[in-house]
Amino acid sequence: NALNDLYRASSEKRLPAVTVQVFPINEEPLVFGSQGVSQTVLNIMLGALAFVFSNLPKIESIDTFGEDTLKSVAIIQQTSGLATTGQVDKPTWNIIARLFNEYRGGNREI
Questions:
Q1: Less CB within 10 Å around the terminal CB: N or C of the chain?
Q2: CA-CA distance, 59 to 65, in Å (whole number)?
């Protein structure tokens, strides 16, 4: 089957991991109450960052943009010099993604 062929071809060549574009294709910002794949990925990143940065709240639910997501986003926007809108547009998403990729240990303030 095609899936098995693709898997064998990629594993035999030891190809690098493929990145996935998860920011909403329509580029509408994620806002309080948002749900979906992009929202889930956002909350996973924020949840991981809450273990690294003691000033970010713990994310209680990964599938909804709730109060804890709003607080985390506002803290990151404020400390990054972005407008504190509480909405996750591309610049905010990129800051969160960079933080997620860069900081995977330690306990420090952003």
A1: N
A2: 10
Chain segment 49-106, per-residue pLDDT in tens: 999 899 999 999 989 999 999 999 999 999 999 999 999 999 999 999 989 988 865 5
Q: How far is CA 103 from the centre of its chain?
A: 13
Q: Which residue has the tokens 């990729």?
A: 101
The whole-angstrom separation of Cα 6 and Cα 91 is 34
Residue 59 contacts residue 47 (beta carbons within 8 Å): yes
Q: What is the pTM of this model?
A: 0.78
Burial 52-90 (b: 16+ CB within 10 A, else e): bbeebeebeeeebbbebbbbbbbbbbeebeeeeebbbbe
